[in-house]
Amino acid sequence: MLAAASIIPRSLHKGIQITRALKSRKISFSALPPHPPPLANSVLDTIGNTPLVRLDRFCQALGLRNGSSGSNNHNSKPLILAKLENTNPGMSKKDRIAHEIIRQAKAAGILQEGQPVVELTSGNTGTGLAMVCPLLGHPFCAVMSQGNSRERAQMMRFLGAEVVLVPQAPGSAANQVSGEDLALVEETAQKLCQDRQSFRIDQFVRKANADAHYLGTAREILEQVKDSPDVRIDGFVDFVGTGGSFAGCTKRFKEDCSHFVSCHIVEPEGISPLARKYTNQSDSNRSSGSSKNHVIQGGGYDMPELTLLEEVIQKGYVDGFLQVDNQGATDMARLLGKTEGIFGGFSAGANLHAAVQLIQSGQASQVVALICDSGSKYYSADLLPS
Ligand SMILES: Cc1ncc(COP(=O)(O)O)c(C=O)c1O
């Protein structure tokens, strides 16, 4: 099993200039895509169908090479493919689940006409719901920890949502949400839901969360690479919060690909309950008490049980666990910006750091990573260099 390694060349820490137009691959200068998307009836029609981008320049800047482990299943050029979920209208992959959960609940008759909706959120699901709910006739209330970045609450309010902020547990650090903080948010969300007879989205247990990625994200990825003979995805890494995108994408890759795709759960270094539970892997950097915080918002909550992962774990679809530290996630998000012109958040950086580890270990050579949200959600956190 891999430990988080230092994979960023010293020169990058010193801030060398990296040009985007590296020689490895020609950049297309066509001004417009051949087919613009059709006229949308509402913003709901613009969720999903996000771009998939080759990160040749990012890989070249790192000098990325395939590792020598025997399990590398083909000799293709090392490559990371980035699914730009930051280009969804609410700037995160969570727009997909907001739409799918509401859609399925209405279809099943468990969400009544005009019924208010409540959800616990780190901000991204809430932003998706703040967009989707009013368009479908439901008032929305988001319950969020004060430890999440301020701009997330501002964005939900801008979209018309009510936002209830819950103070963090004693000892928690600003911009770092722990499992204890989340438990407090859950308590408030449950109470609000009961008092107001609201529909609870329950993103941690609702199967429609994973379905959104099975039916959307991963299906799109396979469609997007099918006409590229030099691309054969053999790895997938995903930083886990609810586990919805890992479960949905992994299930689709395992079911639909005729070749092996090595799927790895990503957790923050020092907080790796899933790795410890399923592999007895010890994390030598494991923190205790109030220092169990990290900067990668949206996951790493120190929860050893995640309902949405049960099926993929039971089917043996989880091939491993990778850990990423704060610095690695931050450096990779910044490198993505410098080399590829893509503005992703901390968890995008965590996924890229894990993709690099997977390639260097030789367990895969062409790896998909989600750019879960936009860097613009972190102006008040330490993502942007000062
Ligand atoms: C920015 C970001 N990255 C990653 C995740 C984790 O995604 P999932 O809940 O599908 O595991 C979340 C979840 O809220 C998120 O907001």
Automatic annotation (TrEMBL):
Top-level taxon in the UniProt lineage: Eukaryota
Pfam families, per the entry: PALP
Domain Tryptophan synthase beta chain-like PALP, chain residue ranges per copy: 44-373
Chain intervals for the UniProt region annotation (Disordered): 277-296
Biased composition (Low complexity): 282-291
Protein name in UniProt: Cysteine synthase
Organism of provenance: Seminavis robusta
Organism taxonomic ancestry: Eukaryota, Sar, Stramenopiles, Ochrophyta, Bacillariophyta
